[in-house]
Design a protein that fits this description.
2 copies of one chain form a homodimer. With 137 residues, the first copy, chain A, is mainly beta. Chain A has helices at 45-54, 131-134; strands spanning 25-31, 37-43, 58-61, 66-69, 78-85, 91-98, 114-117, 120-123. The relative contact order of chain A is 0.17. Chains A and B meet through strand 1, strand 2, strand 5, strand 6 and strand 7 of A and strand 1, strand 2, strand 5, strand 6 and strand 7 of B.
Chain lengths: 137, 137
């Protein structure tokens, strides 16, 4: 299937390759307004279907081995604004509105807050919330 | 290790978790000027070391199961301008200068040129080169 397929016949899942990554594809969450890369996580087919149905992002957590409705605990859900599939169908960009202004469980604005510069690691993150207050222990 | 570690003692590889993804981490290539997301590929430890050493991006190709010096055939290499590691150490952002202005093997500016909109798939890519001319058959 390619871009010349009749749009009405197109089925998004037909261009996505879940097999290559043992049932998972990578999903990059990107702020739909600023273009900031917020986080990277994984999706299986069910999580993508749920995401499309709910309009809020549902990932597959590799560490917990279960569906993960992003923000289910913190309230910081990601409202889906657009989806883009890459050339070989094994990665997505999710354009999202990040509720609460922070995507990371550390309370930072995005998850990529550690910059490697030569042998040094620098924290360049912007702290939005205190995780100890948001995630009740 | 965290941001309070003495920078001189920091060792970038110590905060990267290759085990979680069976030896691989996801790497997002992002244009260092525009912030455009160009592509997503994978790295193993060797490819990351080579990338840091050469200053040009070397991935691990999952489909070909070998090191992949991006642009080795087309000349469209990615010059490394910065690296960011995510909170759980299994994904990177590579800030790059994309030589040739196109990251995708299709000749498009970036790999995420297929937009899913409801049941439709739309090609929103910008064609930079003709792949038949660049990759000799």
């Amino acid at each position: 299937m390619n871009s010349e397929t009749n749009p009405e016949d197109a089925e998004p899942f037909s261009i996505i390759d879940f097999e290559k990554g043992d049932g998972l594809i990578a999903a990059i969450a990107q702020d739909h307004r600023s273009g900031e890369i917020l986080m990277l996580a994984y999706m299986n087919e069910e999580s993508l279907r749920l995401t499309l149905k709910r309009g809020e992002v549902v990932y597959w957590s590799r560490s917990r081995q279960k569906l993960w409705h992003k923000g289910e605990e913190s309230g910081n859900v990601q409202k889906l604004k657009g989806i883009y599939v890459d050339c070989d169908g094994d990665a997505l960009i999710l354009r999202v509105e990040q509720v609460g202004g922070a995507a990371c469980h550390t309370g930072k604005q995005n998850c990529f807050f550690r910059r490697i510069d030569g042998g040094k690691i620098e924290d360049v993150g912007i702290q939005v919330f205190d995780p100890d207050e948001v995630y009740k222990k």
